[in-house]
Amino acid sequence: MPRPDLTLTPTGPALAPRYRERAPRPPANPYLRLFTLPGARAFTAGNLIARLPMGMFGVSTVVMIAEGYGSYALAGAVSAAGLVAGALTAPWIARLVDRHGQARIAVPATVWAVLGQLLLLLAAYSHAPAWVLAATAVLSATAPNTGGMSRARWAHLLKDDPNALHTANAFEQAADELCFMLGPVLAAFLCSALFPEAGTLVAAVLFLTGVMLFAAQRATEPPVAPRTTAGSPLRAPGMPALLAVFLATGAIFGAMEVVTLAYVDGPAAGPVLALQAAGSCAAGLVYGRARRSARLANCLAAMTALMALPLLAALTGSLLVLAGALLAAGMAIAPTMVTGMSLVQRLTPAAQLNEGMTLAVTALLGGIATGSATGGWLAEHAPSTTYGYLIPPTAALALTLCLAARVGARARHGHRAGTGR
């Protein structure tokens, strides 16, 4: 109960106490301040439930098909078919979301994707032909970019507060890392403890439930922007170069994952690899408390240095040293991704925000597929598995040098323009 405050009036003390309400102070923690916004907790909870299965579907598909058909090659091919189809359809789904609204598009797209996953489950359970497995995997490739839709809501709610938006982007990246760290572990546990199809079944239920809860929060949904005559966000100045950064960053992730699995080659591979995601998650939360984003070139330079640590650790032959190196290397991931996503938000018109962020995710997935293939080839054909660890720092160094050359060229061009030369 507030305490009465006796105040002086022109005629003397007030005859009756006057109550003065004190406005509650906002939390000092920037992450807690985010969730004081009306509706923020509700849409975040639904989105996290929907995002967790994104780390479950791939592992569940591989285990389900490998157990039923005895072929990891077939399991990998079916998983790759779904990944390629998703990379092709995701920008179109995002464009529809921008034009018609999140709830109106995300719900039917999710229902269709879940039906495709259930058909894949039934096909694998009944030992259908391989082409049926691939076809059902392709049918499920309409899942909306749940992380992008959540970032779009933050961008709408915090459009006048860039510092808070930076914190929100860091939170979303940390959530991505957490979901992709816990999702595979949960999927592997369900498939081994219950039955091979359990991972896909639980992931489908969680995905549908999460999207339904997220879409129900209409108060925080960004308004549908007027239809624009602008072309694809790919035409925005600077966007192609930024997507190249996401492509190369994905190659670093994909190579590191496959090479580590081949190097460790045992049950310890999963926990050791999860340390990279843990390092990224922790660094993302710390980075979100900063007042502003770092320069992308600085983030890439830090990534170049830290990605060399697993290579040096592998040369020692110690699993514990490698685990610590992966934890440290992961700390460069979230700041780079947060800075990159912030640039995407800055370069993309508001009416195409979901499409722009989905293009970034598509480039990232394409890089992961390329890095996985390259890392797997080196792990199998190189004289030592350790050679595969050359890919991440080499790709990061090449990307840093290209970006530095681009910035230098811009500076020279501006100098000539300013001096009239």
UniProtKB/TrEMBL annotation:
UniProt keywords, alphabetically? Membrane, Transmembrane, Transmembrane helix
Query: What Pfam families does UniProt report for this protein, alphabetically?
Result: MFS_1
Does the record bear Membrane in its keywords? yes
Region of interest (Disordered), residue spans: 1-24
Q: Which residues cross the membrane?
A: 48-66, 72-93, 105-125, 241-263, 269-288, 295-313, 319-344, 356-378, 390-409
The cross-references to SUPFAM superfamilies, in alphabetical order and at most eight, read:
MFS general substrate transporter (SSF103473)
Out of the domains of life, which is the source? Bacteria
Q: Which PANTHER family does the record associate with it?
A: MAJOR FACILITATOR SUPERFAMILY (MFS) PROFILE DOMAIN-CONTAINING PROTEIN, PTHR23542
Name the record gives this protein = MFS transporter
Species of origin reads Streptomyces roseoviridis
